Amino acid sequence: MKQQDFLVCRCEEVTYNELMETASRTGCTARELKLRTRAGMGYCGGRTCRPLVQQITQKLEKAPHTRVTLKYQPPVRPISFGDLGGGEE
Amino acid sequence: MYDVIIIGAGPAGLSAAATTANQGLEVLVVDEYMKAGGRLLGQLYEEPDGTYWNGIKESNHLYERANQSGAEIKLGTSILNIEKSGDVWLVYTEKDTYETSHLLLATGAAESPSPVPGWTLPGVMSVGAAQVMTNVHRVKPGKRGVIIGVNPLAAVIASELQMAGVEVTALTLPQMNGLNEEAAHPKQVMNQLLHVAHMAPSALIRQGSKWMKPSIMQDLGITFYPKSGFKMWGIPVHLRKAVTEILGDEKVAAVKLATVKPNGDVIEGTEEIITCDFVCIAGGLYPLTELAAVAGCPFYLVDELGGYVPLHNERMETALDGLYVAGNITGIEGAKVAIAQGVTAGLTMASNHGVQGLKDRIEQSIEEIEQTRDNAPFHFHPDVKKGKQIVQEKWEEMMAAEQPL
């Protein structure tokens, strides 16, 4: 039975079919898949879909054991521009 | 300037806090949740000896102990970044920046619910979310739920929901897709369940599991697995049925369930609709390592531990000077192991800070972690000990290479 499509990255509205199609067409790494589709680049910083994006390309990537395939960057939690800039109240 | 900052007020963080503060160090614990206890808060289950493990009670106890030892505990505060400046670790929150010489990451684990069609509808949540709603906030997630994913975590939470008076209609597999292969494969799921069958509430399952060890028996077992499922705490557990879609216009109204072959393929024409008002997805847990990653810790991917873990030694030191880890960030295990690791991390930090005469106690605490692990009624991954060994080996390889980090 055909698999129905569904969202993987909610913030950037990237679907399962889009990710699978991109991965199999380009044979790309997790980082490239993220950059091509924007999955994991939304407001939440990939807190839900990061492991899923990694999983899609895990079989394609060579020896990813020693490094985290998708980079983490600060701030690791959403923050308002006011707080980030340290501006006046 | 603190002597020690601990990120995470779960079992590992709180136990490390009490340990270090009792050695006379000035300690700050920070956690983003409004209550202390971490994932321990939601736990409520019966131990093999018949007593109940109540996470809220255990959390309160750990919190009180840390508090009385003099540790400062700040809740509802997220850490956005950590970085080293000279000999000092800078810890950034939204409003303030704290400084410390010893920084412990006890950030625990996060859930990775595997998606199925319809999973973005309101009323769909991870099993952990349902657990926190029910046991911590005392809010029913709904009246009648379906749990997608058959694993120990799902079974425990199903029983907790039932204790809270919430009906769980079924535990069932998800339809197989590229993101859930193992969790959707009937035979593989059964194989994993056999590792925890000695914990089952039914004597029939406990006995039956002994006969099921050979692979041929597993083939037969899954082929003849009752189509209506096996009952656990009165809840049908389906290994030959899978959810193909969660249905509803504005929120969850039902799931579409189909019979699957032993390899997970859906059998056409077997679909049925089961009404419900909430759905829980039981995925796995993975170590929450984002702060270790931004700090620049070397990692290694260890499936037996749930994912990428920062390399560390038995004393819970990472490769970065003054940075330590304890609890589920080092691999997915139970709260008791986390508490034991917190003690070791705490003693190591105190010793590195200049407290004399802790060598024997550190050695002893390392042994206690091992013992706690051996005595655990079940392991999230059956080969967790092998995973720990891999980390140890990779750590030694890295040290032997003597590359300055």
Write the layout of secondary structure elements.
The complex is a heterodimer of chains A (89) and B (405).
Chain A: E1 7-9, E2 14-15, H1 16-26, H2 30-37, H3 50-58, H4 81-85
Antiparallel strand pairs in A: 1-2
Chain B: E1 2-7, H1 11-22, E2 27-30, E3 44-46, E4 52-54, H2 55-68, E5 72-74, E6 79-85, E7 88-93, E8 97-105, E9 109-112, E10 124-126, H3 127-136, E11 144-148, H4 152-163, E12 167-174, H5 186-194, H6 203-211, H7 215-223, E13 230-232, E14 235-247, E15 254-259, E16 272-275, E17 278-281, E18 284-287, H8 290-295, E19 299-302, E20 307-310, E21 323-325, H9 335-353, H10 359-375, H11 384-401
Parallel strand pairs in B: 1-2, 1-8, 2-5, 8-21, 10-17, 11-12, 11-17, 12-14
Antiparallel strand pairs in B: 3-4, 6-7, 7-8, 9-18, 13-14, 14-15, 15-16, 19-20
Strand content of chain B: 25-35%
Mean pLDDT across residues of chain B: 91
User: Which shape of chain B, going by the Cα principal axes?
Assistant: globular
Distance between the termini of chain A: 57 Å
In terms of DSSP E residues, the strand content of chain A is 5-15%
What is the count of β-strands of chain B? 21
**Number of discrete domains of chain B:** 2
Mean pLDDT of chain A: 86
Which parts of chain A are unreliable, with pLDDT below 50 for 5 consecutive residues or more?
none
What's the total number of strands of chain A? 2
Number of helices of chain A: 4
Which structural category fits the helices and strands of chain B?
alpha/beta
